[in-house]
Amino acid sequence: MPEIAEVARTVHYIRKLLKGKTIAKVVANEDNNVYGKAGCSHTEFQKHMTGKQVVDAGQQGKYFWMIMSSPPHPVMHFGMSGWLKFKDEHTYYYRRKEGEAEEPWPPKFVKFLLETAPESGEDKVEAAFVDMRRFARIRLVDCPGEEIRNVTPLKENGPDPVIDKDVVTVEWLKTKCRAKKVPIKAMLLDQANISGIGNWVGDEIMYNAKMHPEQYANTLSDEQIAQLHKSIQYVCTTAVELLGDSEKFPDDWLFKHRWQKGKKNASNTLPNGEKIAFLTVGGRTSAVVPSIQKKTGPVAKEMDEAEIVDGDDEKKPKGKGKKRKAAVEEDEEEEEIMPKKTTARGKKGGIKDEIDDAGTVVNGTVNGTVKGKKVKQIKQESTAAETKPTKLGAVKAVEDNSGRRRSGRLSRS
User: Fold this and answer.
1) pTM for the full model?
2) What is the pLDDT of residue 413?
3) Is 317 a catalytic residue?
4) 57, 109 Cβ separation under 8 angstroms
5) Which among 3, 44, 334, 335 is annotated as catalytic?
6) Is 383 a residue whose pLDDT tops 70?
7) From the CB of residue 298, how many other CB atoms can be counted at a distance below 10 Å?
8) Which residues does residue 110 pair with via DSSP β-bridges, in sequence order?
9) Contacts of 97 (CB under 8 A, 6+ apart)
10) What structural domains and CATH numbers belong to the chain?
11) Residue 193 and residue 343: Cα distance in Å, rounded?
């Protein structure tokens, strides 16, 4: 799943290639997950994007958006496998394999294609939003560009540790930790607390801070919280400044060595000989260095229950493996955690991957608020939607499988 650094990379390329240009042509493909679950439709997106100029782009954690010359504005989330590709420009954060052919255009799994009008002798720019697994979300928000962060879904998410440094202070983090009797990594992954930290960034922060990821947040000392804050700022800022280009990451980062899990003859050790362990708790996989990340308080699960993988000694699942393994991988890959919602009975529902509509449905539109003002979100136009109320089911939050991503990431900016 693209995390804070990968999304920053996308915003960088939007500003580089689309900012100041007019969208001359839009072709959006129907997808009831990508558009529909965000309260939008492909026809509405196509209609409201065509003919507008891209004024700027922005980010909050894993969400990003384009500010257009007039509302509504597109707000997007990559989910597990989404990406914004540009023709003739390799913007992806994975490297192409040696000898791999250029990808055809348009690429596979397209949700929308944008084409700019040629200006001042420049060639047109073509962009494509792709998503193979359909967990991405594309919505339109009808508000002034400067108010985008004050409407759903951004207002339900916590501050961005890089953009909102003035908010994410040591005292702010101390207050969060003291109020949370949950494993510290789980607290960081909850996007309602802080935006943009996913599995690999969370593991890197834990490793840099020398903390066990499952120690309860409310047991950390003031000194540990200060170190945690320092590690959050260091890891997130460094990754964002390098635009998620892992070849430029510091050599002493855990990221450089964590992707060997499951590979033949993998040693799963750091250059200094320290072992890397992989904890699987609640469907989430964490890379941990036990000799460095010590427990100083209660943890959610004892370390001796961890699986320390060493090459061919990796333990294999028993029994009916394939279906169970697929389900676990699905759970581990879906990482976006959203704030709890209150049901009609007043009980809090489960944590969601993404809040589809956080407002009251009135005549086919969803109303949010901006500092007390009504703000409409562009709602999906369909006969079925008008005649039957959409059931907003909770989407189970699951995790990005850290063992699946490999270190063969992008080497060019």
Assistant:
1) 0.76
2) 44
3) no
4) no
5) 3
6) no
7) 12
8) 130
9) 408
10) 4-148+374-387 (3.20.190.10), 170-333 (1.10.8.50)
11) 21
DSSP 8-class letter at 16: H
* pLDDT for 24 beyond 90: yes
- Measured from the Cβ of residue 412, the count of other Cβ atoms closer than 10 Å reads 11
Strand partners, 84: 129
Residue at 143: amino acid letter: C
104 classed as catalytic:
no
DSSP track, 314-366: PPPPPSSHHHHHHHHHHHHH---B----B-TTS-B---BSS-S--SEEETTEE
Mean pLDDT of 128-149: 98
Euclidean distance between CA atoms 401 and 1, whole angstroms: 9
Strand partners, 82: 131
Catalytic residue among 2, 153, 159, 213: 2
CA distance 156 to 342: 13
Distances (CA, A) of 292 to 206, 277, 308: 10, 11, 14
Catalytic residue, chosen from 37, 52, 62, 176, is 62
User: Does 320 qualify as catalytic in the annotation?
Assistant: no
Residue with tokens 């028993």: 318
For 278-296, give the DSSP string. Answer: EEEETTEEEEE-TTTSB--
